[in-house]
Specification:
- The complex is a heterodimer.
- By secondary structure, chain A is an all-alpha fold.
- Chain A folds into two domains: 68 residues, no CATH class; 179 residues, MetI-like fold, CATH 1.10.3720.10.
- Chain A is globular and about 75 Å long.
- The N terminus of chain A is likely disordered.
- Chain B is an all-alpha fold.
- Chain B has twelve helices and two strands, in the order αααααααααααββα.
- The two termini of chain B are 45 Å apart.
- The relative contact order of chain B is 0.13.
- The C terminus of chain B is likely disordered.
- Classes of the chains: A mainly alpha, B mainly alpha.
- The interface between A and B is large, with 108 and 98 residues.
- Chain B: It comes from Spinactinospora alkalitolerans.
Amino acid sequence: MSLTMAPRPAEKSEKSRPGPRRGGAGTTSRPALGLMLPALVPVVLFSVAPLVYGIYLAFTDARSGRNVDTAFIGLENFVDLAADTDFWSSFQIGLVWAVSVTALQFAAGMGLALLLNQDLRLRWLARTLAMVPWAMPPVIVGLMWKLVYHPNAGILNATLRDLGLLSGDIDWLNDFGIALPAIIVVGVWTGMPQTTIVLLAGLQGVPKELHEAAEVDGAGAWRRFRSVTLPQLRPVVVTITSLNFVWNMNEFALVYVLTQGGPGGRTRLPMLYAYEEAFRYGFFGYAAAMGVAIVLVVLAVLGVYLRRQLKDAQ
Amino acid sequence: MVITKGRRAGGRALQYTALLGYLAFLAFPLVWLVSTAFKTSREMARLDPTWIPLEPTLDNFVQALGEQDIIGAAQRSLVVALASAVLVVAMALPASYALARHRSRLNAAALGWVLVSQVFPFILLIIPLFMILRQLGLVNSLAGLVIVHATFCLPFVLWMLQGYVRGVPRELEEAAGVDGAGRWRTLWSVVAPLLAPGVVAALMFGFVSSWNEFLFALILLKDPQIQTLPLALVRFTGPEGVVRLGPLAAASLMATVPSLVFFSFIQRRLKGGMVAGAVKG
C-alpha cells in the first residue's frame, strides 16, 4: 500500500519544479521508479540476479545438493567442455537442428504467407489451422507427434504403406539416421505458423503500387518477389529469423518429450545435455559453462548474420 | 493476352496445389490426435490404423480423467496459472503505465531486458533459480513455480500492457485533470476502464504461458503429488514409448482447450503486437 501511494507527492513536487533535469529526456523521474518497483524487484530478484549468478557459476565447480564448498576455478569448465566429445556432438546436433529448422520455418512460412496473401479459397482454413500449432502447448505437440510417428499404431507408417512407399515399419524416433530429421519436421510444424503470420503482416504492408509498377516494367513473379517484396520485408525477415534461430537453439521441451535426446544421443540438443549434466548428475558449474558457451555462439552467429543483412541492405 | 491468362490459370492451379499441401501438413497430426482420442483400445491395436474411428467412444476421456491423477494435476495447473496471471499483471500494470507515460532510461532498460530474456539459454537461469528457491524452501512448492512463471512472462506482459497504455490518449487524462479529478481518480475512472481489454488479454497470456510451461515445472516439482498437467501428461509415455495412446490423446486434447480459447480470442491483437515487436525489435 505504501508502495503504491508513494508516487503521488513525488509527482507533485516534480511537476511544480520545472528546474533543469540532468540528462534531459533520459532522466528517470522518481514517480516512474515508484511505479516500476513492483515489476523491478521480482525481475531483479528472479531473473537478473540469477542470470548474473548463473554466469558466475560457469567459472566455479558448483555441485548440486552435497555440502561441498563451491570454489572459483576460472576457465577450467570451458577447458573441460572443449575436450568433451559429448558436448561437441550435442553442439553439432544443436546447430544442425537450429539452422535447418530456422531455414525451413522461413522457407515454408514465406511460401504459406505468399499464398495466404493471394485471393484463394480455403484461405480462412489455412489461417485458422496455422494458429493451432502456435497455440498448442509444446509438450502436447511432442506427444501428438509421438502418436503420428508410432511404429505400429501411428498414421505415418500406415499412410506410407497405403501409398505403397513402405513395406515394413519405420521406428521414426528410434532410428539413428532418421530421428534427427524426424524431429526437425516437428520443429518446422510447430514454428512455421508464427513465422507465416509475421511475414503475412509484413507482406500486407508492401505497397501494391510497387508491384504494379514492376509488373508494367515486365518483371515476372519471381523477379518481383526478389526485387520488390524481399527488400521491403527485410526488417521483418531479419527479426523473425534471428528470433527463430535463438529459440530453436534453446529448444528443450519439445525434444525432451519426443526422444529425450535418443536414440544414442542422436537428438540430444545442447539444452538437453545441459539439463542432464545439471539435474541428473548435479554438475551445476559445468552446465552453466555450457550455457555461457552456447549464448556466445548464438550471439556470434547472429552477429555475422545481422552484419551480412546490414551490408546487403546498403 | 491469351498467353498471360493461360499462365495465370496455371499459376492458380499451382497455388491451390501448394495450399492443399500446407493444409495437409498442418492438419494431419491434429486429425490423428482427435481420431486417436475417440478410438477404442481394440481399434488402436489394429495393424492397419484408420483415420476415422469405426466405433467412436468417449472411454478414453473417462479413463484419462480416472488415471494418473489428471484431474488433480489439472487443478494444480489451474491454480498455478491463475495465480501467475494475476501476479504478473499486478506487477506489470503500474510499471507499464510508468513506461508508457514517463520517458526514461528505464524504457530502454525494459526493452533491453525483453530482448535479453529471449537470447539467454534457460540453463543459465534455472540453476541459480533452483538454488535460490531451495534456500527459500520453495522447491517442490507451487508457490515457487508461480513466482518463476510470473517473472518469466513479465517482460512480454509489460510490453503488451505498455502498448495499451499508449493507446489511451494523454488528452483524456489532462481533461480529467482540468475537470478537477485528482491523479488517482483519473487513473481509476478514466484510464482503468480503457485498459480493461488490455488487462484481460494480459491475464489470458499469463494464464496460458503458465498452463503450457513444462521445463521449470519439471525441475522444481519433483514430488508426483504436486505435479502440474504437462508433467502428468508426459508420465503417460514410458521410456519405452507411448504406453496408453487413447487416454494420452484424450487428455492432450483436453489440456489444449484453454490455449485454443485464448488464441482464438486474442488472434487479431496478438498478430499486430507480434509484428510491431518484430519490426521494432
